[in-house]
Amino acid sequence: MEIIKKMNIPASVFYDQVMDSVLFDVRKHTGKSLTRKQLNNFEYVKQFSKNSRARIKVEKLVENTSYHFRTSTTKNDFLVQYDIKPLDEKSCEIRYNEKMESYGFLQKMNDAVLGTILMFFKKRQFTKMLKMMEESY
To answer: ∠ at Cα 12 (96, 130), nearest 5°?
Structure first.
């Protein structure tokens, strides 16, 4: 899934909002208060429910330019990429890319069917989140 959106906020503001969210998530799931510089290649386990958890790894972190991370479970591997391109002092372009690799034939089939149905809702929800980020500026 790829979404490209022009935002009416500076690239630095968007990046700050994303990093605040990432640092909050790391602190919530590890108890560690990290700095942004410590995030690059940082890995932690995130518990979603009693029987569901994932390994999160920050793979690329470039100030005001990109944030890429991988979420790995026993069933899937998700790669999420935020690439930020400043357009001018007051706006930027966000390129969000999400790729998923499923393990096993049945899981691949299940994800293919559900993925097409859920993709519409995920795109809508992500676009709504971007709008909220813009409005909070």
So the answer is: 40
